[in-house]
Design goal:
The chain is of the alpha+beta class. It contains 2 helices and 8 strands; from the N terminus they run E-E-E-E-E-H-E-H-E-E. The chain starts with a strand and ends with a strand.
């Protein structure tokens, strides 16, 4: 069985000891991905002068999908190779904004299966969304 690990030094690093992705056979399992940048800031978060913070689910969703795409490219794959996505939302009130962005990347007939769940919180207070995914390598 083929096994390989992807540790992408151009992206935000894992907060514990795990890879960005792990290949097992013809499947690539992608760890939870957020909108965190390599410098530990977050896409879709604006800190206002008055101290308030504005979080944008659309910008965060796009950043998460782009980060997944980057991991896929490191493995020689594309978004079209995704077969399953699990999404974690801090608030289901963000569901429509998340869907609007998600639907720009995937078609119903060819996109991955998907599960979306609400969670109490994510590893950083700035995060509204996290996604994990499974991709399949094309048959030889």
């Amino acid at each position: 069985m083929t096994q390989a690990f992807i540790l992408d030094t151009d992206r935000a690093q894992a907060l514990a000891h795990y890879p960005h992705a792990r290949r097992v056979g013809d499947l690539l399992f992608i760890s939870g991905v957020s909108s965190r940048r390599a410098d530990n800031t977050h896409v879709g978060v604006t800190h206002r002068p008055d101290g308030s913070v504005v979080k944008d689910i659309r910008l965060q969703t796009e950043a998460v999908i782009r980060n997944i795409e980057h991991i896929l490219h490191a493995a020689g794959l594309e978004l079209s190779h995704l077969v399953d996505i699990t999404t974690f939302l801090v608030s289901m009130s963000d569901f429509s904004g998340y869907n609007a962005v998600y639907n720009r990347f995937f078609e119903q007939e060819t996109g991955p299966t998907r599960t979306t769940v609400a969670v109490h919180q994510l590893p950083h207070e700035n995060l509204l969304i996290e996604m994990k995914a499974i991709a399949a390598f094309p048959s030889a």
